[in-house]
Amino acid sequence: MQGQKNLQNINQASKDGIGGSPLRPDGNLKVKGEFAYSSDMWHEDMLWGMALRSPHPRANILSVDISEALTVPGVYAVLTHKDIPGSKYYGLEIQDQPALAIDKVRYHGEAIALVAADHPETARRAVKKIKVEYEVLTPIVTEEQCLHPETYGYVHEPHEYKSHGHGNICHEQKLVSGLGVTDEVRATADVVVSGDYEVGMQDQAFLGPESGLAVPAEDGGVDLYIATQWLHVDRQQMAPVLDLPEEKVRLTLAGVGGAFGGREDLSMQIHACLLALHTGKPVKIVYSRDESFFGHVHRHPARMHYEHGATRDGKLVYADCRIVLDGGAYASASPAVVGNAASLGHGPYVIPNVRMHAIALYSNNPSCGAMRGFGAVQAAFGYESQMDKLAAALGMDPVELRQLNAMSEGDFMPTGQQIDAPAPVAELLQRAKDMPLPPPLDTEHLDVRQVPGALSNTSHGEGIVRGVGYSVGIKNVGFSEGFDDYSTARVRLEVIGGEPVAMVHTAMAEVGQGGVTVHAQIARTELGVEQVTIHPANTEVGSAGSTSASRQTYMTGGAVKLAAEAVRRALIEKGRRRYGWTHDDITLVGGKVVSESAGTLVPMVDLLGDEAIDLTREHHHRPTQPFDKETGQGFGHVQYTFCANRAVVDVDVELGLVKVVELTAVQDVGKALNPLSVVGQIQGGCTQALGLAVMEEIIIRDGKVRNASFTDYLIPTILDTPPIPVEILELPDPNAPYGLRGVGEAPTVSATPSIVAAIRDATGLALTRIPVRPEHLTTEKPGA
After folding, report:
1. pTM above 0.85, yes or no
2. pLDDT tens digits, 604-638
3. Quick check: is 12 in a domain?
4. Which of 58, 143, 497, 590 is the most exposed place for a label (fewest CB within 10 A)?
5. d(Cα 266, Cα 23) in Å, to the nearest integer?
6. Is 298 exposed, middle or buried (0-12, 13-18, 19+ CB in 10 A)?
7. Same structural domain for residues 614 and 646?
8. Helices (H), ranges, 216-358
9. Nearest to 387 by CA among 298, 280, 469
10. In this structure, are 554 and 592 located in the same domain?
């Protein structure tokens, strides 16, 4: 009994382990402006790199003349594709993108040549001296053009990539469940609703532009300090182009100023290394803001058609869906985005019969790839709009309709995969509905800061209507479709300064999600120490996978847990050998080796002595399998996560202005390892969803980007962001470390439809396209 009391007291003394909310180690530095981001790096005798980019979305390159650029004083190198020593192509899934354009350009902003100079202004002047002769071609930019190459041509000629040569279709996935959607199935539905929906191209809009520093090494290799999301796959793509073995391409994570999927692809990594190896000098590249818009992938714009049939009492009978994603010039992550859109595009509902066809097109628009929500965001706008339309047709409450058809544990996805963990979809919706509503707008004592457009003095409360909308979404966690998703962690335990200290070393990219905080919490919990250091992330340790797919806490956190558990076992075994312990209830707590039955056995410093225990472990999630290409059947995803939202909006129906008054979120997180970080992730995801709902879109005209700046590409500021009350459920997933679920993407999936639903509730407008713009609210007729 005394031993149990001692253990309880020691456990209570540790507040920075799992379940606590210790402050981020990088938080104070970032708030004070002292954190070193990748763009802050410097090296003695450093050169500056810059790229010449195409002004055309589609053109043949007839000639490139670099002679005048080479004469600019201070210029050390001007490179074209002819100077690439290895493979000229790279890509995340399909190696279809040239490191520098070869004989044609396929999108506005494609890199053609590189300059290295002693000053960024010198590099800029030299870039302007490069002369390129183009044969300008009509860009292929619409769905109609892409699907009729016999008339409009090919973005990639079919013979170039025989493994996926389907004209201008990069990837497609079909899905059929139940009886599919036949005339006989349709006849069993009492009510049918259909709709066409469109999602614009959203940018990740991270505040830190792409940047990195490449340093040539004495062994003929290169060291790259880079802001990225996946160190090892960056290296895997880079090494063949540089004609180097992977071990000579060494990457270290530099400070990352946001990512959200936009750093999963390469940007300037290869370019900086090519210049550094060619000149023998360190080369730094920092994109300007407009170059950043050209230099990374974006969220796929989408056109979707949905048809749902239901019985008179609201039970869904079938869903017939088509999702067309514009992948842009190169494949990037489009195949995986298509897989997500197809497998999640029905929503978190039980639907006996489903037919789905999702495709990604090649076009001469900017390349699209990973962005928070990854295929599920676009689909959620479609199926949740349909749920509201169906509820209206049935005369039902939209929340009740969703709850009537909500998935729960034990149900089957249309892919045939059974949900084998909690799926509290109906409960999430109910909790969102039950949360207190914000007070109505006080028009008698109006604070003009609280009405749409008032901060720009465009409105003083006239013509304002309030609306409320609901939505719920589903998102997968981790990599899917048979990908061997794993993460590696190394944990070292030793005595430093007279106390036990743990060191955690992974290749996880800390992009703002708080992984470094959680890894320290896991080490404290498993090893019973307070002092934990996080080794800089680099390629000296095994891969941690990408910081994407809401996977890092699940996967790399799981690897840290495994490694720390192995260290703990090794230390206890050392004590058994030394002291002859026979207890089977020994653990590490508060810097001591303790037994629940016998109390403290020995201080850890005495047992460790001068020796260190240093172990590495890999965490693999349970295997998945590819979806069948024709039926979409298969155990494709390792975990599902759900979030429900309620949005309250005020709309000035005369001016077409919207103010989101409140955006409530309720999410099941399995286990909140760091509750404060969990709330922050949910609120951040909701804010990005707000941007997609009412303001964020890259405007493309004839293949050209028209708003490559934060002046013209609008993102939510603190003045646009409403209160975001968050309620967390913790229903453990038995297959996950600590029972946790990935958190970051689900609210981005679910929040956008709730905002649009609230605007519809206020205005009576159909609103089938996002972002909703003022002209949609002032020109569209109610019920259109």
Report:
1. yes
2. 999 999 999 999 999 999 999 999 999 999 999 99
3. no
4. 497
5. 31
6. buried
7. no
8. 231-242, 269-279, 289-295, 334-344
9. 469
10. yes
